[in-house]
UniProtKB/TrEMBL annotation:
InterPro entries: Dimeric_a/b-barrel, Rham/fucose_mutarotase. It comes from Amycolatopsis nalaikhensis. This is L-rhamnose mutarotase. Gene3D superfamilies: 3.30.70.100.
Length: 112
C-alpha cells in the first residue's frame, strides 16, 4: 500500500578508496538503528547500493531528495556516519552542494 505521491528515484555514483571494498560492505551489513530512523524520517523509502570494483551505484527512492539532504546535513545520526564513510570513499559528501544525482537518460516504459 502506498501513501501520497510517487517518490523521486535518484541515482548516485560514489567511489571507494582502493582496498576499502570489504570494509565498506562490512559497515553496511547493518547500519545503526538511529541512522535507519533518520533516513526514514527524512522521507527515504528505499536505498539500494550496488558495487562494481571500487564504483558504487545507489538508487534512492525518497519523497523529496533535496529536503532529505537538508534534514540529514546536521542530523546527529548522520554526521558520524558520514565521517565513517569519509574514511572509505574517495570523495566524501559533506552535504553542502545542490546535488541532484545522475541524470536519467532512458528507461523502459511501463506497459499497461
Amino acid at each position: 500500500m502506498t501513501h501520497g505521491p510517487a517518490p523521486q528515484r535518484v541515482a548516485l555514483h560514489t567511489r571507494l578508496k582502493p582496498g576499502k571494498e570489504a570494509e565498506y560492505e562490512s559497515v553496511h551489513a547493518v547500519i545503526p538503528p538511529e541512522l535507519d530512523t533518520a533516513l526514514r524520517e527524512a522521507g527515504v523509502r528505499t536505498w539500494r547500493i550496488w558495487r562494481n570494483g571500487l564504483d558504487l551505484f545507489h538508487v534512492v527512492e525518497v519523497d523529496d531528495y533535496a529536503a532529505m539532504r537538508a534534514a540529514l546535513r546536521d542530523h546527529p545520526a548522520n554526521v558520524p556516519w558520514q565521517a565513517r564513510m569519509a574514511e572509505l570513499l574517495a570523495v566524501e559528501d559533506d552535504y553542502s552542494g545542490d546535488d541532484t544525482g545522475i541524470g536519467l537518460v532512458w528507461e523502459l516504459p511501463v506497459k499497461e
